[in-house]
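Researcher: Structure prediction, please.
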Amino acid sequence: MEFVQALITVVIFLAMLGILVVIHELGHFVVARLAGIRVREFGIGFPPRARVLSSHGETLYTLNWLPIGGFVRLEGEDGDSDDPRSFVRAPFLTKQIVLVAGVAMNVLLALTIFVTISWLPTSAAVLSIGSVQPDSPALEAGLAPGDAILTIGGRYFDQFDGPEPMVAELRRRAGQEVVLGVLHADGRREDLRVTLRTPDQIDATRGALGVANLTFRLSSVSFTRSPVDAVTTGAHRTGDALRLIVDGLGQIASSIATRPTEAPPAAGPVGIAVQVGDVFWQAGPIATLYLAAILSANLALVNILPFPPLDGGRMLMLVIKGIVGRRVSLQAERLTYLVGFCFLFAFLIWITWFDIVRLGGGQ
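Model: Predicted structure follows.
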């Protein structure tokens, strides 16, 4: 049974990774075609080639044996071609747009997933109150231990929000009168008007509402967001995912610089596959889809980094070549990409080693 579960996890992970990378490459493909650049091949998976799916027109569509994404092969993308429709002969701005299109597609995919999940009917999350502080707005409003906050100003929260946004919403409304949707301990629902403490009355022990020992949980109440609210929520979650990844990249850089022999605060392919499996088996397909959106945002940000041979590195190389002109030789450019690829591959091996150590129960 464990073997079957592990096998299903691997299939889900490879399918997720493959779709995210294919979507990324599809961005390059579509924009290149619209710009009139000749696309030699659009491959699903990585070589060796398994079969040719279609050979009509100037583009070869192939299926390859390694199911870890896809690729687009543009005429002259290596910087050497006399074809007037080659990538190397396209205008500077066109080349930059083609390169950034993959990143844009991953951000758009993350946004689409977040909006879709936000639009689906879902169970409302609540903050269960463990204790009520004396001389507090909560006590004046009639809140008691065992009650739970369901809505704040008419706004519902779900499992993907977590407790922090609910607490932050109360703090944001400090000094205001707000309507709280409350689930009482006996099952009754009631809307209570509460005037929250002002910002100068709030400190480390006194919150805006005056409740403590809070527990975040799902309730039996379900709700559906309006299309506008779903788009707004999806956009916020996309921004939060991007900010989370930026912070994570900073932590990884700091860890490598100061503690190179210790496990980094990130996971490689093996670790991500384990996380995908844990989420799928414990939280279900919707939560797995949510994780896919985070990974899509991750793929976008990583690819825009100004490091060869990532898209951001290639964009930077175009800028450098535009500034210094012909003084950057084709050989130097290719060597830069090779060195960058070797560095990335070494980093991948390094972080995968720590994934395996964690999997084995080590630190």
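Model: The beta strands are 39-54, 60-74, 122-128, 131-132, 148-152, 177-183, 189-195, 211-212, 215-223.
Researcher: Thanks, that helps.
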